[in-house]
Amino acid sequence: MSPSPRIAFLASPAPEAQQALETLTALHGRHAPDEAEVLCALGGDGFMLHTLHRHGSQGKPVYGMKLGTVGFLMNQYRADGLLERIANAEPAKLRPLEMHALTESGATIASLAYNEVSLLRQTRQAAHLRIDLNGQTRLDELICDGVLTATPAGSTAYNFSAHGPILPLGSHTIALTPIAPFRPRRWRGAILRADTEVRFQVLDPYKRPVSVTADSHEVRDVLEVTIRESQDRTVTLLFDPEHNLEERILSEQFVV
User: Fold this and answer.
1) In 3D, which of 45, 48, 59 has the Cα closest to residue 10?
2) Rounded to a whole number, what is the distance in angstroms from the first to the last CA of the chain?
3) pLDDT tens digits for 133-179?
4) Domain total for the chain?
5) Cα–Cα distance between 47 and 74 in angstroms, integer?
6) CATH number of the domain that residue 146 is part of
7) Is 244 flagged in the annotation as binding?
8) In whole numbers, what is the pLDDT of the chain averaged over residues?
9) By residue range, what is the domain housing residue 70?
């Protein structure tokens, strides 16, 4: 990367992010994402995920600054010293999950998830699910509000709120976590190798409909969902050395 890289600034609609966009483009110029060397996302974690989904296929590093509610994937916002911060930033490579969902209409819908893929009941009726790992049934029936599969980067988000484990970055694992399980009562989920193929079969889709969400992309009335780690897609996030992602994930395990 050059000492003065071309930066594409992308901002959420929040007033603070829009103000920062004006300030930073006045200092560093305005470049389109496909012309830039670095993408700079201004907002919260939701906007960072939006940026990764929209521009991640370009393979360009993303440096985020927090101008939103949640900023686990972001650096602190400062208008000064941005070039030096980017030059000294530590990279964190993330590999998303690939989700393929078969719906009642017969359509197969694919999406990526950098945080998690979650299956949730659509009505007051609990979901009835079967779980297969690499083609072998591991749980004949899970009765629950839902279940999710999370990446290490996403393990501190919805997964942790559902009492799932926090996974170290670079551990090559994913978390399988039930949401309000009724049966089996004592099953608390599993930590799986990242290359595991996870398949959920909806056992009673008409009486107990289920939706699936890959980050923010929702698909309703699913019959079957298959999840595996992507083999050909990675994104690189840049973090200030004093607040790198690996340290943040470790620190989350000691918050009381």
Assistant:
1) 48
2) 40
3) 999 999 999 999 999 999 999 999 999 999 999 999 889 999 999 99
4) 2
5) 10
6) 2.60.200.30
7) no
8) 94
9) 7-95+234-252
User: For the chain, where are the E strands, in sequence order?
Assistant: 7-11, 38-43, 62-66, 90-94, 97-103, 108-113, 116-121, 127-133, 136-150, 173-183, 190-193, 198-202, 210-214, 217-219, 222-229, 235-239
The annotation status of 175 as a binding-site residue, yes or no, is no
- pLDDT average, residue stretch 172-190: 95
Residue 115 marked ligand-binding: yes
153 and 196 co-located in one domain: yes
Tell me what pLDDT residue 243 has.
78
Task: Report the C-alpha gap between 180 and 127 in whole angstroms.
Answer: 11
For the record, the structure tokens of 88 come out as 């000294």
Q: What pLDDT is stored for residue 1 in this prediction?
A: 66
What span, in angstroms and rounded, lies between the C-alpha atoms of 119 and 21? 36
Tell me if 89 sits within 8 A of 243, measured CB to CB. no
204 is catalytic: no
* pLDDT score of 256: 67
Q: Is 46 marked as binding a ligand?
A: yes
| Catalytic residue (one of 34, 45, 195, 232) | 45
Quote the tokens at residue 138.
């591991």
Distance in angstroms (rounded) separating the CA atoms of residues 188 and 175? 11
Residue 177 is labelled as binding a ligand: no
pLDDT at 6: 95
